[in-house]
Amino acid sequence: MRVLASVASLVLALVLLVIVLPGVSGVDLPAIGAELADVGPVVLAGLLVLAMAVMWCGNNVITGSLPGMTQSQAFQLAAVGTAVGNVVPLGGVVGTTTAFLMGTSWGHSAVAIGVSVTLTGVWNLVGRLLFPLLVLLLAAGFRFHAGDEVLWYGLATAAVLAAGVVVLTRRRTVSLVTRMLTRLLGDRRGGAFPGVTDLAFTVARQNWQQMTIATCAVSVLHGVLLWACLAAAGTRVELGLAVVLFAVNRMLALVVITPGATGVTEGGTLALLFSWGHGGPEAAAGVLLFTLFTTVLESLVGGVCWSWWTLRRTRTPRRAVVSE
């Protein structure tokens, strides 16, 4: 059943791309393909380096949440998790399972991995919401011509979600949720999650700066990649508008009706570009190029990392990484 759901979601994503890109841009797929073919190999190589830098920067979020994990291991873990999210609809459960499989094979405890998954998820979510919120606030303050509806709906959505994240990351809230889960699982002695809350806050206090800086670096480089992809395809967007465009793109990525919100982000991003007067095959090609260097590339790299880990999978003696 899960395989069928994954296939159906991937088909839906492809259908959305095939329908949305020509529909919004007003040009057919061959014209978009012709614009992509005009992008030179040197430019493509530069975009590839930039895309890999985005992925590599994310390592520091994971190494911060799980001390003792190497950069190579963090890269593999992040790549596989992202690939799962891009292929499997609502692939959080599958991604968490792969994180436990890979992490324990490298000697990390289940508790430490659970803390890492939680902290990484919180920081990634805050990065995807807080950055767009600040950008849209600035855009509204400086009255960028991004469309009042786009700005105010975006502000309202980001504010609600950001407030939810802040509430959920407070110590009292985490302790309350832990107690509720413990009772739900039938263990009223509080032994179902021994030390998880304390360990999570210990790691967060020690490494919050590293994780925050890495999250900001990923956001900035991701935005530069979007701007560069548009420029490579012949669409020159002003810097201020490019920042707003990226913020809206990141918020649309949370609408996961398809794996990785593929089709949704492209359609919304292209519609916003069109409202600013950047229509035609160049804009559609730039948006599609961004998808190729994010969703497609990340999925391919994740598949390679999973295959590599599977081939080299060996059990190593567990090492104490953080006091539990």
From TrEMBL:
First-listed, main subcellular location of the protein, grouped into a coarse class: membrane
Entry's transmembrane regions: 42-62, 74-94, 100-119, 126-144, 150-169, 239-263, 283-309
Record's bilayer topology term:
Multi-pass membrane protein
An example Gene Ontology CC term for this record: plasma membrane
Instruction: Reply yes or no: does the keyword Disulfide bond apply.
Output: no
Q: Does the keyword Translocase apply?
A: no
Q: Which domain of life is it from?
A: Bacteria
Q: Which organism is it from?
A: Lentzea jiangxiensis
Subcellular location as annotated = Cell membrane
Name listed for the protein in its UniProt record = Uncharacterized membrane protein YbhN, UPF0104 family
| Alphabetic keyword roster | Cell membrane, Membrane, Transmembrane, Transmembrane helix
